[in-house]
Specification:
- It is globular, with a radius of gyration of 23 Å.
- The strands form 3 sheets. Strands 1, 2, 3, 4, 5, 6 and 7 form a 7-stranded mixed sheet that branches.
- The protein folds into 3 domains: 99 residues, Nucleoside Triphosphate Pyrophosphohydrolase, CATH 3.90.79; 30 residues, no CATH class; 127 residues, Nucleoside Triphosphate Pyrophosphohydrolase, CATH 3.90.79.
- 24% of the residues lie in helices and 36% in strands.
- It contains 5 helices and 16 strands.
- It starts with 12 loop residues before the first helix and ends with a helix.
- Bound molecules: zinc ion.
- Zinc ion binds next to loops.
């Protein structure tokens, strides 16, 4: 067996379990996920053998158990001739058709396969890396260890009076859609400093009251999105043209198309929309 692809040992406990138990198989072909599609909808294949045969050298990765069943991810460079009733769905699109825990597991699978593919050789001496634990590798020559790395990015909902700031980024796939200011954290920067810098760079505004809202794994290819809210202080909207094509203040009563339900961007916007609903309820209660 190749020293490079040592992340799979046919003799170990993991592979014995694979042969005997029903397993969820997260199979990737390029960036698409292989899903079973029948009258009940889409699902992650759950069988006792891989839905598409693996070669000895096929990159693969063990994942945490899901619903009491083992999970294994592997990737294929080309689709098989016989898809056996399976369909490929983009990872991002899969969140529309899978329960969240399966989408999330697929995201983790994609991140770990990406990490595996990008750490075949040691960055210090160039020798092959060997799997040490499920989520670490060690250099076969100098002993350097590596783990999967996560790239943090911030996303922020800015409030001005009763409106929020929405932007259209040039990389949005839907031309009419608006989202929130977002950007990667730089080395040596706090998350709050990143929020201030990104807002200043992208739309030229000064903000205050930066508050943590929530976070979401963002496996494109290995990120985590950290959501904040903030209040406008000063400045006129000035769009950074390399990244954005538009930025506007919107009220909850007249929102443009916004991101999909599962995204943290949407949760931040829905949270703002829900404020009026709860305010209306209070008002109705007061009048009674
Ligand atoms: Zn090395």
């Amino acid at each position: 067996m190749s020293q490079i692809m040592t992340n799979f040992d046919p003799k170990n406990e993991f592979s014995d379990r694979m042969k005997t138990e029903q397993t969820y198989w997260f199979v990737f072909i390029s960036n698409s996920l292989l899903l079973q599609h029948d009258e009940e909808g889409y699902s992650v294949p759950c069988t006792d053998v891989p839905p598409i045969p693996m070669k000895e050298w096929t990159p693969r990765q063990e994942l945490p158990m899901l619903n009491g069943k083992p999970c294994v991810a592997y990737s294929l460079s080309t689709p098989p001739a016989d898809m056996k009733g399976l369909e490929t769905v983009g990872l991002r699109e899969s969140w529309n058709v899978l329960p969240y825990e399966f989408y999330n597991a697929a995201g983790k699978a994609a991140e770990l396969l990406y990490w595996d593919e990008n750490t075949r050789y040691c960055g210090m001496c160039g020798a092959p890396m060997k799997r040490h634990t499920v989520i670490s590798k060690r250099c076969t020559n100098c002993g350097k260890e590596v783990w999967p790395q996560v790239s943090p990015a911030i996303i922020v909902r800015i409030r001005k009076d009763d409106d929020i700031l929405l932007v259209h980024a040039k990389n949005f796939r839907r031309s009419e859609m608006y989202g929130l200011v977002a950007g990667f954290v730089e080395t040596g920067e706090t998350l709050e400093e990143c929020v201030i810098r990104e807002v200043h760079e992208e739309v030229g505004l000064e903000i205050t009251n930066i508050r943590y809202f929530g976070s979401q794994p963002w496996p494109y290819p290995c990120g985590v999105m950290i959501g904040f809210t903030a209040d406008y202080v000063s400045g006129d909207l000035h769009v950074q043209e390399e990244e954005l094509s538009n930025a506007k203040w919107f009220n909850r009563d007249h929102l443009p198309p916004i991101p999909d339900k599962m995204s943290i961007a949407r949760r931040l916007i829905d949270d703002y929309v829900a404020e009026k609903a709860s305010a209306t309820k209070v008002k109705v209660k007061d009048e009674q």
